[in-house]
Amino acid sequence: MSCVVAALLLFGSLTQDLILLSGTSAASSDKIWLLDVDSEVSAFTWLSVVTTFAAAWLLFGIAAAASTRRSRFKWHWYFLSALFLLVSFDEFAGIHEKISSALASRIDNTGLLYFAWAAPAGVLSLLGLAAFVPFIRSFPPRLALLLVLSAVAFLGGAVGVEMIGGSVAELQGMQTVRYRMLTNLEEGLEIAGVLIFIYVLLSYQESRDAVDSSGAMARSP
What is the rounded CA–CA span in Å between residue 83 and residue 56? Predict the structure, then answer.
């Protein structure tokens, strides 16, 4: 259901952008802000907050179960839970935008570095992925592949497309068809990554419950 809602909201945002920007000027007063995926007061932002918080909640439950089993990856689960809780809050509060503004006053932010926060975030994300390789390899092959796909989709949107969008914004401004298309692509990739990740978590949780249930049956008299 979340996938359908996200697709409809993205379609609404994309359609609105094309209509408003097809004229000689983009009249912001005519915009329906609830349909703008790049606005903090939009329905899409609300959906992003809900989905990332749902991921954090699922991660915390899995972390607690992993801790009970004394899994060597329990802290990986707790770290991811805290990370997604932070991402959920950032979707609501726009922390990364404030960080970007602070960095922009200290570095030469041009081209792909126009949104100054993106490059440092990309480096930290790659380092984090490298550190989580053993964790990813502990998953069944299909889920491990989907886990990597979710990370590529999310980071490709949040960092990759964001950096490209920054270079376009610097040269052409933000009220252009090209920038707005990139914004919709960025947000679409981000929420696709989160939804794939939630699917992986639910599938993993289901498989663990099945293993625990079969173990309990084997121990029963």
Answer: 8
CA-angle at 51, arms to 48 and 52, nearest 5°: 85
Q: Are 161 and 182 in contact (CB under 8 A)?
A: yes
| Three-state secondary structure string covering 17-38 | HHHHHCCCCCCHHHCCHHHCCC
Give dist(CA 195, CA 178) in Å, integer: 26
88 lies in some domain = yes
Six token digits for residue 48: 């992003």
Q: Which of 192, 105, 120 is nearest to 152 (CA)?
A: 192
The count of structural domains within the chain is 1
97 half-sphere exposure, CB direction, 13 A CA radius: 9
Q: How far is CA 111 from CA 13, 94, 159, 165, 183, in A?
A: 26, 22, 14, 9, 16
- Residue showing tokens 């004394």: 70
Give the domain range for residue 79. 2-203
| Chain centroid to CA 56 | 12
Mean pLDDT by 10 residues, the chain (221 residues): 84 84 61 79 89 96 92 94 93 74 64 73 87 94 96 92 84 83 91 96 87 50 39
- Radius of gyration over every alpha carbon of the chain, rounded to an integer in angstroms: 20
Question: Residue 67 domain-assigned?
Answer: yes
- 183 part of a folded domain: yes
The predicted model scores a pTM of 0.86
Domain assignment present for residue 219? The answer is no
